[in-house]
Write a structure and sequence with these properties.
The chain is α/β, with parallel strands linked by helices and 206 residues long. The chain contains 8 helices and 9 strands. Helix 5 (112-120) packs parallel to helix 6 (159-170).
Length: 206
């Protein structure tokens, strides 16, 4: 994927020290999961400027990238991707794909339940990474920040809320070993997998 120079506001959001450290931990962790991405049809939801879309393509996946901000989509296009600009807080229908990849998105949405419900109807596997809090809460985020909520409101889930929502929608909820970063060790973030495929559940639990 092409490297492009980012405008200052995008570089501030997507190339700061904290963001880069989190992304490195996420990518190292994805490698450790040993998922066979080759030939898989993947939705990358909340793709930002396409860092994970590019990573998935390098692994052999066929990727459809979605983000709610046109300025982020412009950068993805400049990098050689073909993103869709879509407000992921609304109700929508997705065609069948093998995996929904949802890293760093749902805690920037007003209503993550809407998105999860839409995905569950046609996507058998969800790979989810999110910030979590002990009790669900709503926060205000700066709408002008290209990495934050486009409405200015964000629902931050608890692990218990996620466990319940994913179990209702997919049936199987798996929690793999977590990325090597303080925010995962301290319970501030989590990676989870939801699936309706019983064989996959058995393989991860064995």
């Amino acid at each position: 994927m092409k490297n492009v120079e980012l405008p200052e506001r995008l570089a501030k959001a997507f190339r700061n020290e904290h963001y880069l450290a989190i992304n490195k931990a996420r990518m190292d962790h994805l490698e450790s999961l040993a998922i066979d991405w080759k030939g898989k049809n993947v939705l990358d939801l909340g793709a930002g400027i396409g860092d994970f879309s590019g990573w998935l393509i390098e692994k052999g996946a066929q990727v459809m990238s979605f983000d709610g901000r046109e300025e982020n989509c412009e950068i993805m296009r400049a990098r050689g991707l073909k993103p869709y600009c879509l407000n992921l807080d609304g109700l929508m229908r997705f065609e069948h794909h093998d995996i929904a990849f949802c890293y760093g998105l749902i805690y920037h949405l007003e209503s993550p339940w809407k998105l999860l419900r839409c995905l569950a109807g046609s996507i058998p596997i969800l790979l989810l990474e999110t910030r979590i809090v002990p009790s669900c809460k709503v926060e205000h985020e700066p709408e002008e920040d290209p990495s934050q909520s486009i409405t200015g409101k964000a629902f931050i889930p608890s692990k218990e809320w996620l466990d319940g929502a994913l179990a209702v929608l997919w049936g199987g909820v798996l929690i793999p070993p977590q990325p090597n970063h303080p925010e995962y060790r301290n319970g501030q973030r989590i990676v989870m997998m939801a699936t309706n495929e019983e064989e996959l559940c058995r393989s991860y639990r064995s």
